[in-house]
Amino acid sequence: MAKFKPKVFTAYWYHHLIVRLDWLIIIGIALILFVPEYNYVIKPGLEIGKTSGTLDLGSYQKALEEEKVYLKNLKALKVETDKIDQMDLEKLDYVVASGSNLSDVLNQVYLLTSQNSLNIQSFSINLDKGVTTINLGLAGGNYEIFKRFLESVENNIQIMDITDLSLSEDQTSFSVTIKTYYQE
After folding, report:
1. d(CA 38, CA 27)
2. Which one of 9, 35, 93, 157 counts the least CB within 10 Å of its CB?
3. Residue 149 burial (CB < 10 Å; 0-12/13-18/19+)?
C-alpha cells in the first residue's frame, strides 16, 4: 500500500497577519461599504426631509391645527345630525333605499298606476349596481292620464327617473322605462 506523505503547510508572514487582524479587516470592509450607502441613500433622504419641511416642528403644528379645525367641524356636523328626527331619517330611507327592496319598488309602481287608472300590460326588471330599471307597458288611459302619471312619478318620495317613454298613435297605451336607485 502506498503511503501518502503529509504535505506541510508553510505559513508566511502575511498569513499570521490576516489571522491576527481579521476583525480589523471585517470592520474596514464594512466601512468601505457604508460610505457609498451613506452618500447615495441616507444623505439624500435627509436632505429631502429638511427641504420639504417634514422634519420641521412648524409643519407638524400646522398639520395639528388643520386636524383640530377638521375635528371641530366634524363635531358641529354630529350635533346637527343628532337634531334630525327619526321620522325624517325613515323618509330619507324611502328616497334612497339602503338595499334593493324590490317589493317596495313594485308596490310603489303599482300604486302609481292604480291611482291614475292605468293597467300594466307588461313589465321587466333589471337590477344592476345600485340601479333598478323597470320597463312598463301601460294601457287604459289617454294623454291627460299619461301626463298625470308622469307628474305622480315625479312627485313620488322615492327618486324615480323616467329615461325612456313612448306613446302609441291612438294614445291609449304607452311604454315607460323608470330607474330607481338604492345603496349597496
Report:
1. 16
2. 9
3. buried
Taking domain 92-181, whether its CATH number is 3.30.1450.10 is answered by: no
147-173: pLDDT as tens digits: 888 888 888 877 788 888 888 788 778
Enter the C-alpha cell of residue 13.
Answer: 508572514
Pairwise CA distance, residues 172 & 174, whole Å: 7
Beta-bridge mates of residue 160: 180
pLDDT of residue 36 exceeding 60, the answer is yes
Range(s) of the chain covered by CATH 3.30.70.60: 92-181
Residue type, 125: I
Helix (H, G, I), strand (E, B) or coil at 10: coil
Across 75-82, average pLDDT: 90
Q: Distance from CA of residue 76 to its chain's centroid?
A: 25
Residue found under cell 327617473: 161
- The more confident residue out of 27 and 105 is 27
pTM of the model: 0.48
Q: In a 10 Å sphere around its CB, with 0-12 CB exposed, 13-18 middle and 19+ buried, how is residue 101 labelled?
A: middle
Mean pLDDT value across the chain: 81
Cα separation, 79 vs 17, in Å, equals: 79
